[in-house]
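Limitations
The structure tokens in this dataset are predictions for the assembled complex, not deposited experimental models. Users should treat interface geometry with appropriate caution, especially where small molecules or nucleic acid strands are included. An illustrative entry is reproduced here so readers can see what is and is not provided.
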Amino acid sequence: MNPLPLVAVAGSPNAGKSALFNALTGARQKVGNYPGVTVERHSGRLMLTDGRPVELVDLPGAYSLEPASPDEAVTRDVLLGKQEGERQPDALVIVIDASNLDNHLRFALQLIELGLPTIVALNMVDLARRDGLELDAAILERELGVPVVETVAVRRRGIHELHAAVDDMLSSPRCGVHKRVKSDLVNLQRRARAIASAAVVSETPVRRWTHRLDSVLLHPVAGPIILAAIMFVMFQAVFAWSQVPVAWITSAVAWLSDVATNALPAGILRSMVVDGAIAGVGAVITFLPQILILFFFILLLEGTGYMVRAAFLMDRLMHGVGLSGRAFIPLLSSFACAVPGIMATRTIDDPKDRLTTILVAPLMTCSARLPVYTLIIAAFIPNTRLTWGVGLQGVVMFGLYIVGIMGALGAAYVLRRGVLKGGGGGFMMELPKYQWPPIKDVAIGILTRVQIFLKRAGTIILGTTIVLWALASMPQAGPGQKQSEVSIAGRIASGIEVVVKPIGFNHDISLALLPAMAAREVAVSAIATVYSLDAGDDPAGNQPLVKKLRHGWPLPTALAFLAWFVFAPQCISTIAVTRRETNGWKWPLFMIGYLFALAYIAAGLTYWTAVALGL
Amino acid sequence: MNAPFQPDTLGLDQLKIGTKARVLSIDWASLDESESNRLRHFGFDEGITVEPLHLGPFGRDPIAIRVGRMTVAIRRRHAGAVRVTPLQL
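Predicted assembly:
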């Protein structure tokens, strides 16, 4: 079978390439990986008018064919037909930012020299107009020698015309392939400037929005304060906004549990469904609203262009511990989940910078820790209001985030002076124009996360919950015995307890630690399952988990448990992605070792201090 | 750096915020390959006009610089490799 014709979408970073790709292919996309390297491959299908399908591939953004990052190397290799696992594209769609012609035309010229059938999408013409630029696409078309289509990808303008142009290009491929003239960057840049100034019909000087905003947001004093305020609002919102939807989900789970209890005959099946599946998965689903709110903020910060500004503000501090401002974005993403965070380190050029960032990323408080933190905070920290809009619980949560950040910075500092010494590392980034991201793109991003979370809840969490239920309910406890002591799981936990007893962990925690390796939030469902089983048919057992914990755990134990979760590498997915991103077991094993050691020390110190203070 | 003394030339890192300047020379040898590629990607070249816009809040590092129609951020150390002469207005 002949493979489909392959059309590559290429362009410089911030040209709106992915928005254009989304507009052309719609929601049906495939995300894969180029073999041997850790660069994602996004592809989709486009239908020509004669019904022939074409495969469209979205190449990583690059400034030129002379790479300065692993992403750019993939783009070059695909375009030159040298990338393993990818055929050379049959045609190109080059995306350029109309408001930054001088720069983006350089890469376009270099790509046109490849001699493939090519269309240029002159994107973001609306932003160019906002900047007071009037462009003549006809001049551009003449100078470049390829068709030019004006588009505004985020508003889906010009997409139909672009589709038609792709259609034309593939139905009547130009014959006579150019020879590749290899021009150097400087000459290309000079030609690009000449063409750009020819294509600009008129330019009205305007005070650019971006500059005005930057003079506030990048202000040496106001900038960091605003950044801290944004972060603080973000974490308060995670709590405040989620209360109502969390209450809905909690009552829905309770209702479902009642329905199942009434519908099923008493016995092993009912126990498995109610105590295992519903109690376990229900406890985790409750945290969906918080995860959504966090992702909403992160996607918004990314989409508006603020994320890069945050990197700018933080670069000097990150440099102080041997990282670059670039690490700030992967680390900030790790607040949602370390897995995409670690994958985002691909944009860091320096290998040692990148490895350090990967190793400390799990210390950033990911959303999977939220269920654990929320449960313990709700049970043990009084809901006092300190001042308007600021509650004690929120402050404690903020504090846990800070401890995680300090831990990450400290670990980076030590790593960069020890095992990962050397390497310069730099910070060279474009500060893109501020833009309001299309609601639809943000919505798609959030929806993808919901799917991933629910899929995890439906598979890993459901699976481990049921296995744990089985281990925890067999063999049946006799009269006067506690189910969580006699069961198989209880016996394994007793083994773990020997090790963790010195740091204040009780039997329940020991029982939760093992399944929590699958995913941190499973700790909550594991504890829920255990209490649910221990309670049996005792009506007093139906009180909320929070109340049970309050009665069952001393405060120092609860605090030690929180401290443990700040550091412990309890997530199989993170370990797996680290193995993939570092091409071997050496670094993931190193990561597991140092993080467990830190977790043990931190939990121990917390416990002993709390006991000494008489809490 | 031991650049020979020239009147009115200074490193881009010495330039005051909001002062436009023309690039006289770039010490490519002091940068590694990917760093110099990246500077070229941003459009750094002899003869172009640059303008420092913002400084990082800590240690006045990095520096946000307008190059053509783009704003880019680079560290002080890299900016030092770019010799400029301020434009008289």
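Some entries come with short summary sentences. For this one: Chain A touches chain B at residues 63-64, 66-69, 99-103, 106, 131, 185-186, 189-190, 193, 210-211, 214-215, 218-221, 223-224, 308, 312-313, 315-317, 319, 325, 349, 424, 426-431 (CB under 8 Å).
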